[in-house]
Amino acid sequence: MKRYALFxxxxxxxxxxxxxxxxxxxxxxxxxxxxEMDDAxxxxxxxxxxxxxxxxxxxxxxxxxxxxxNLNIVTLCNSCTAMLSDAQKQLKHxxxxxxxxxxxxxxxxxxxxKHFVRVLYEEIGLDVLKKAVKKPxxxxxxxSHYGCHYMRPSQLHEFDNPxxxxxxxxxxxxxxxxxxxxxxxxxxxxxxxxxxxEALAVTMANHKLHTAKNSNVDALxxxxxxxxxxxxxxxxxxxxxxxxxxxxPVLYYPQLLGLSLGLDKNAVGIRFNxxxxxxxxxxxxxx
Amino acid sequence: xxxxLCTCDRAIKLPDLDVGPDNTIEQYDNMCKKKPDIxxxxxxxxxxxxxxxxxxxxxNVNAEFVNLYEHIILVGHPVYKAKDLILAAIEKxxxxxxxxxxxxxxxxxxxxxxxxxxxxxxxxxxxxxxxINVHLIEKTPFLGGMVAKLDRLYxxxxxxxxxxxxxxxxxxxxxxxxxxxxxxIKDIKGKxxxxxxxxxxxxxxxxxxxxxxxxxxxxxxxxxxxxxxxxAIFYVPTYPETYAIDFKTCxxxxxxxxxxxxxxxxxxxxTEKEIRAGAVxxxxxLNWYDVSKVEEYxxxxxxxxxxxxxxxxxxxxxxxKPKKVVIIYCVGSRxxxxxxxxxxxxxxxxxxxxxxxxxxxxxxxxxxxxxDMRSFGTFEYFYNTVREKGVTFIKGKPSEVIxxxxxxxxxxxxxxxxxxxxxxADTVVxxxxxxxxxxxxxxxxIKLNGDFPVIYGNASLGNIELPRGIFTAGSATFxxxxxxxxxDARKAAFSVLSLFKQDKIEAILxxxxxxxDLCSVCRMCIGTCPxxxxxxxxxKIKVNEELCMGCGICSITCPSxxxxxxxxxxxxxxxxxxxxxxxxxxxxxxxxxxxYNATDRAAYxxxxxxxxxxxxxxxxxxxxxxxxxxxxLISGAKGILIxxxxxxxxxYVRGNFLAKAREQVLKMNLQHLGFKKDIVRLEWIxxxxxxxxVEIVKEMNK
Amino acid sequence: MIELKNAxxxxxxxxxxxxxxxxxxKCFGCSDCAASCPVRYFDERYNPRKIIRLTLxxxxxxxxxxxxxxxxxxxxxxxxxxxxxxxVAEVINAIKNYAAxxxxxxxxxxxxxxxxxxxxxxxxxxxFDLRKREKLGLPPINKIISEVAKILEHxxxxxxxxxxxxxxxxxxxxxxxxx
Lengths: 287, 702, 179
Fold this sequence. Notes:
Keywords (chain C): 4Fe-4S, Iron, Iron-sulfur, Metal-binding, Oxidoreductase
Domain 4Fe-4S ferredoxin-type (chain C): 26-86
Pfam families (chain C): Fer4_9
Protein name (chain A): Cysteine-rich domain-containing protein
Number of domains of chain B: 6
Oligomer: heterotrimer
GO molecular function (chain C): 4 iron, 4 sulfur cluster binding; metal ion binding; oxidoreductase activity
CATH topology of the largest domain in chain B: FAD/NAD(P)-binding domain
Structural class of chain C: mainly alpha
CATH class of the largest domain in chain C: Mainly Alpha
Radius of gyration of chain C: 19 Å
C-alpha cells in the first residue's frame, strides 16, 4: 500500500468532484491510500502574479502539513503541482526557509510533490496498470491534453519531455483507447488569462477544440481542473464565438482509467461532466 | 643568507641594520650597472627598487624583493619601515624551498601529427620540408578529413580538389613522413622532447589493391555515409589509392573476394605499435553538435529535417531537388543548454549551402532564419553575394519545426517586422555548432568539457612560461575555415620547429610540491587547480610539472599544508606577517600581477598613503589563507586588504574567485568573533589604479 | 517612439532583485520567447520580448502600466526555449509583482487576494457543497483556512496592493489602449 497526502486545492473539491471521486476510486483499485490534509488551503498560485513570495509562503505552509505527517504530496491540479514543487525547492534555500520559520511553520521531513498522473506513471507503472485493466477501451479515440504546469518549467519538474511529452499518451494507451498525435500538443488552454481577457482565453481554448473536432475524437483527456474549465465549461462560448459545434466531452484521466478498470460510471462521476459523454459511454458499453 | 641592498645611487639611505648572525648585508650603489652574482640554489633578499624592475635584472633567482624605493623613498615613509620590511623578508626566506630548475631535454626530434585533414597535412608537410621526421596518423582509411566530405568550400565555392589535392601532392613528395591509417592513439607517456605513444591500428581489409573497382560493383551492402551513398567496401579519392572495408557495416559475404585481383581479408585485426616523438600536433578537427538534442527542431523525429553536410551531399549528388528550403542558424549554438559559444564558421557554411542549392536549382526559394548573422571581415562580400542571389534572411530564433499537412512549418518571429512568421517548406536544414574531438584530448590528458582549447585561452595547451610538446592545429584549436586552418597549421609547425632547435630547455618557475608524509589524499587540491595539473598517480597526489604554473592555490586549499609552492608557502607568509605587522598597521597583501603594480604607480604619481600601510607581494589573491588574516589580527592589524585582479582577469584563471569565496566565509566568522565587517577587504585593483588603492587604504585607516 | 530621456536606469536592477527576476540581463533578443508564446500566437498585443526589451531600456512607466503585461499565461513555453536559460515567465511575473505594488494590479487579482484573506480559498464553501460531497462519499473539508490571512498580513501584500487607487480597473483601460 502506497500512502500519500492528498492535496485538493480550491477548484477540485467544489467544482470538479467527479475528478476527485474518480481519482479516489482509481487509487483504491490500485492500492493507493490517500490521507486527508484537513487544514490545507489554496496552493498560492492564483496570487503569484501579485506577489510571488506570498504565494510561495502559502504553498510552503501546505507542504509543512504533509511534512509533519511525513508523507509525500499527491495533487490533482497542474498549477498546484508547480506551485507546491516550487515552494518545496525554495524551502532548501536559507533565505526563504528563514521567512517560513518566522511564520511559525516547520518542515521536519522532506516532501516530494507529484501530480497524481505522474504517480501513476512513475510509481505504479504502465505494467501494473496494464494488468489491472479489465475493460479495454479499444473503441475510443481521444486527444490527450497535458497542460503547461504538468512538466513545465522542466527545471522544476524534471519529468517527461517538455518538447515531446509522452507520459499521458502512454497512460491513455494503457486503457486501450487510442491517443491521437496532433500538432500543437503543448498549446496552453488559456485558463490563466480568463480573468484578464475572456475573448483571448476562449480563442486559445478553441485552438485545441478545433483540432479535436478535426481529429474526430470521442473525448479530450485533461488532467487539470483549470484546463477543463477552458475546454468544457467554456466550450459553449468557443462554439458561439467561432460559429461551430463541438460537443466534445472532456474527461479527466482518472475517469477514463476508471472505466477501463471496470469501475461503474457513478464511481467515476460521469454525470457531472458538463458536456455529456453519453455517446462515449454507449461506445464502451457502460449503460 | 645574503641581503643585497641597492642604494640607487645613494638615494636610499639606511641606518645600520642588524640582520642577525646568519645573514650578511652587501651594499651596492647601483645594481642596474653592476649586478652581483647570484646562483640558482642560493636564497637571497634583494632590497632596492620595485621587484617589477629587479626581476628583469635577476630572472630566475630565489629571492624575496624588498621595495625600498617605491614603497618608502618616493612616498616619504620613514626608514624604520625599511628595516622591518627587510627583516620580514629574511623571516620568510628562512622557510622557503628554493626553486629547482626543471630541465627538459629534447631527446627526440621527430613529430607525431594526429589527424590527416587539411591541418594535419599542412603541418606534416611543413615539418617534413624542414627535415623533421613525421609520423602522420589518421583514424579513417583515407586522408582529407572534413574537407574531403564537402562538395565545395566557402566563400568561393571551389571544390575541395582545388585545395586539398595540391596539398596532399606536396606532402607526398616528402620522403620523411610515415603514414598510418585507421589509426588512433591509445595512450601517451613522457613529456616534451620525449613522448612514448602507443598507437592502435585497425586493419584495412584490402591488403593488395589494383584499384579496379570491381568489388564495389558486387558489394551488396548500401551505406548512407552522412548523406552520401556508398558500399561497405569503398574508396575516397584522396590518398592512399587503395580501397578499404568499412567493418562496421560489412556482412562478410565474401563477394568482393571472388572478384578481387589482389587480396582482401574480411577479419578485422587490431594491432598496436609504440612510437616515440618529441612533439605532438593535434589536428583532429571538429564534429557537428548532435542536433537531435535540440528537440524542438525535430531532427530524427521528423524525417527530412537534415544537417548541413547531409544537405550539401544530397544536393551535390542530385538526390534532393527542393523547392523551398529553410536553413536554421545557431542550432545548439550560443545556448546555455547546448553549446554556450559561437562556433564562428557556421554562418558561412549556411551561406554556402544557400548558394549551392541556388547554383544548382536557381528557382529554389531559400530562407535563412538566423538570430544573428555574423559575417566578420571580408566575409561581408559573401553575405552580399548570397543576398543578391535572392535568399530571404529572417532575423529571429525559430521556436520550432512542425509537420503540418505533409509539409514542414518553421515557426519564428521576424524581428525586422515584429510579426510572427510560419514558413512552409519541403526541406529544413539545421546549421549546427561544432564540438572538438574530445576523445583524443582526453587521451592526451587535456580536459575540455566539450569546448575547444582556445576557450581556455589555450592555457592548458602550452603557455609561454613552460615548454610544452603538445600543440593544436586547425579546427582542433577552434572551428576554422580552410584558409584559417592553413595559417594555424603553419603556426603549429613553427612552434614545433622552434622547439626542436633546442637540445635542452631549462625552466625556472616555481612549482607546487606535495609532501607525501603530510598528504592524506583528500583530493581537494585536484578540483581547485586551474590547470588540471594535479592528479592521482599510483594512489598518490602528483603535480604535473609541465602543467603547474605556480599560483599557490593548491597550497592554500590543502588542509594538511602538504602542498607547498616553491618560493612561496603559507608558513613563509606567516613568518613575514608576524615580523612585519605591528599594532595599528594596515596589512596589504597584493597580487603581483595587478594590485602590487598599482602601488608602484602610486609612488610615481605621488599618491601618498599612510606609513602604517605594510605591503606584501603575493602570487595571487587566491593564495591567502584565513589563518594569515587571523595572524595579522592577532599581531594588532587594524585592517587587512587583499588586492587582486578584476573578476575574469586572474592570471591563474580563477584564483580571485576562490579569494572571494573565502572572504565571504571569513567575514562571517570574524563578525561572530566581534570584529567589524570591514576589517578585512578584498578589492579588485588594476595595475594602474593607484588612486583606488590609496583611497581604500586611507578609508581603512580612518 | 521610445523616449529614452524618460528612461529609469534603475528599473532593470529593481526587477533583478525581485523573486524570479534574476535572468533578465542575459537576454540577447533572439525572440524565441515571442515565437514560442501561445498568447502572442493569438494576440500580438502581448510580446514577452518587447516587455523584456522595454524593461532593459528602463521604460518603467510604459512597462508597468501596460495592461498587456497581464496577458502572460505563465505557461513557461518561453522558458523551455530561451537559449540563455532565462526563466522568461518568472521574469514577467516579477514585473507583474512590481506593477501590482505600483497600483497597477488588475481588479480580478485583488478580488482573489481578498478571497484568500477571508477564506484561505478561492471559492466559498457552502453547506450545499458539503452535502453534495457527503452524498458522493467524499470527506468533508474546512470552510475557512484562517492561517492564510496570517501569511498575507505578514508579507503585507494586501496593504501594498490597495495603497493607492489611481489606476483601478485596468480592464476598461485595456480596451482604450487598443487603438
